[in-house]
Design brief:
It holds the Pfam family DPCD. Belongs to the DPCD family. InterPro entries: DPCD. This protein is 15% helix and 37% strand. Strands 7-4-3-2-1-15 form a six-stranded antiparallel β-sheet, with helices on one face. The chain has a four-stranded antiparallel β-sheet with strand order 8-9-14-13, with no helix packed on it. Strands 10-11-12 form a three-stranded antiparallel β-sheet, with no helix packed on it. The longest helix is centred in the last third of the chain and has 15 residues. The chain starts with a helix and ends with a strand.
Length: 205
Amino acid sequence: MANTWIEKLRSAQKTCLLQDGRKKVHFTFSDGGEMAEEYDVRTDELLVRKWRKKLNNSFATKQTSEQWEYEIGEQLAPRNLESAGLMESLSNPIFVRKDSSTAFIGRVRNLPFPIETYMVTVDEDKKNIVIRTTNKKYYKKFDIPDMLRAQIPLDQNSISVAHANNTLIVSYKKPKAIIDMEKQIQTEIKKMKAAKDGDVDCTPS
């Protein structure tokens, strides 16, 4: 439930930093997992959310971490696909989530087909959104982790689709429960004391 997620955030060890017009908040949870978020200082818009899990390394005496996995936003540098130096093609479709205050928004770049080509539906289990094309050139299934954490099923009527500049834009209207939860989280974040020159403990006292 939403309250369970908020309590998990409250109990996490937190640090924060003001840098480059962003408020960067880092959470470390009791299981060793980490979450990092970046907010626009002026608008409080969430720009980045990424996760990193702790893994037991059989070749070392201490735990090591996975690479950061982006839930919202993206890693700006190209990703290496192979140690030999191969890079991800810039012409391939790229899915990135960038939300607004009222909607979860998935953007798929490098899709040149007209809007009537796309079919966007909620999967039968109510936990995924599926993008298909009538020409069978693209298929993508994705979830909205915020909805999963709040245990709210997806609703087909909340989806809207647009297409511009070779980008497919899939918007999902946030339910009131999610908007209320985000307001509570913002209240908690605004309590934190952030440093401009370095990380500090910013757990609310």
